[in-house]
Specification:
2 strands, two-stranded antiparallel sheet
């Protein structure tokens, strides 16, 4: 066990450090750096349409390793899963209005089946459905977290500092209000763009984590080399 822990130490340190940086980047980007106005809800700002979804970054990172550190396969999974979820967000609410969910269920069934069919187009695993389902779920999760826009009326939120402040302080929160008291309420189109970008960024973190682990491994190997005294 000790030998296995020693072998994985460079990657462990690499992922730990980069996970911290990914968290700092994503949350500051969304709530401080790229905002309509900062300091609206306590110290948090109202995010713009484009956000960085931290859960999706970690999903993309995991998919990169699941898919044998293939950046191209990770992007294919992110793209096909996002397209499937986007079709569900666009068409599902037209089949059945809130609060009936069967329209979403129908579209999830159709798009999931389409991803299975797509996987048969080529003999290799570049269109494997399981990774695409992970990306699909990431989009759907972020859609729920940000207010189910296009399904719940007003789900995209007002995206003005004044309206968000009033909604938080003066009115009870209604169905479709996104997380953080409505700060994360987002148009559904931006949900897809946000998650796709975040999944791709996660794959980039995967590449960097492997590179950094290699650097740390080489440094550790050199430091462990026995020092042989040279004859006088």
């Amino acid at each position: 066990m000790a030998a296995r822990l020693k072998a994985t130490l460079p990657l462990t340190v690499s992922i730990g450090v980069l996970a911290f940086l990914a968290t700092e980047l994503a949350l500051n980007f969304t709530f401080h750096w790229v905002t309509v106005q900062n300091g609206v809800f306590g110290a948090y700002g109202v995010p713009q349409g484009l956000q960085l979804a931290l859960p999706a970054i970690f999903v993309g990172w995991g998919l990169y390793f699941l898919l044998s550190t293939s950046f191209s396969k990770t992007l294919i999974a992110a793209l096909t899963g996002t397209i499937g979820a986007t079709l569900t967000m666009a068409i599902g609410p037209k089949l059945a209005d809130s609060p009936d969910f069967w329209g979403l269920g129908v579209m999830i069934g159709i798009t999931a089946a389409a991803l299975i069919v797509l996987s048969t187009v080529v003999e290799d695993d570049r269109f494997a459905p399981a990774p695409a389902f992970c990306a699909y779920a990431s989009v759907f999760f972020w859609w729920i977290a940000t207010g189910l826009d296009n399904f719940v009326p007003g789900g995209k939120g007002p995206h003005t500092a004044e309206a968000v402040t009033a909604a938080i302080t003066n009115k009870p929160l209604s169905a479709g209000t996104g997380a953080f008291g409505g700060l994360l309420s987002t148009p559904w189109q931006w949900v897809s763009i946000t998650v796709l970008a975040s999944l791709a960024l996660g794959a980039v973190f995967g590449i960097v984590s492997v590179w950094l682990a290699g650097v740390l491994g080489r440094v550790g190997a050199r430091s462990a080399e026995p020092k042989v005294a040279t004859p006088a």
